[in-house]
């Protein structure tokens, strides 16, 4: 038995909520903290290797923290709005919101971005 708990941090909508699975892969949600939010002594150089940081609005050396906080095997397409589902703070579970609020209190602005995983 694993010593880690499976903690859900994101509430993904069901396909019954005007979404269909476009079958183009799945979605994953990442949380980012920009490097200017923390001391340069704490900067982590891995951000240069993570292409997702640019999509989140950070230049490669501007991202201090990047973590996947949720994923689903469904590519959730909204049939009325003609767009993929995108996570926001309101979609976080109580545990996800606690993490978000904790990081926001320490670092300031937190960015949540949803990616299509094809």
In short:
The protein has 118 residues and is an alpha+beta fold.
Account of the protein in words:
- The strands form 2 sheets. The protein has a 3-stranded antiparallel beta sheet with strand order 1-4-5, with no helix packed on it. A 3-stranded antiparallel beta sheet has the order 3-2-6.
- About 8% of the residues have low confidence.
- The longest helix has 14 residues.
- The protein has one domain.
- Helices cover 15% and strands 30% of the residues.
- The chain has 2 helices and 6 strands.
- The chain is an alpha+beta fold and 118 residues long.
Features:
118 residues; three-stranded antiparallel sheet; 2 helices; 15% helix
The DSSP helix count reads: 2
Global Rg = 15 Å
- Number of spatially distinct domains: 1
Shape: globular
Distance between the termini: 31 Å
Mean pLDDT equals 79
- Helices and strands, in N-to-C order? EEHEEEHE
Which secondary-structure class do the elements indicate? alpha+beta
| Biggest sheet statistics | 3 strands, antiparallel
Strand portion, in percent? 25-35%
Give unreliable regions as ranges: 40-48
The main sheet orders its strands as 1-4-5
Helical proportion, percent range: 10-25%
Number of strands: 6
């Amino acid at each position: 038995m694993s010593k880690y708990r499976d903690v859900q941090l994101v509430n993904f909508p069901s396909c019954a909520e005007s979404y269909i699975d476009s079958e183009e892969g799945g979605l994953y949600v990442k949380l980012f903290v920009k490097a200017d939010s923390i001391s340069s002594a704490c900067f982590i150089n891995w951000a240069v290797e993570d292409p997702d940081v640019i999509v989140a609005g950070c230049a490669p050396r501007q991202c201090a923290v990047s973590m996947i906080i949720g994923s689903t095997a469904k590519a959730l397409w909204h049939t009325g709005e003609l767009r993929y589902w995108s996570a926001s703070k309101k979609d976080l579970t109580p545990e996800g919101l606690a993490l978000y609020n904790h990081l926001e209190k320490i670092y300031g602005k937190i960015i949540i971005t949803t990616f299509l995983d094809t």
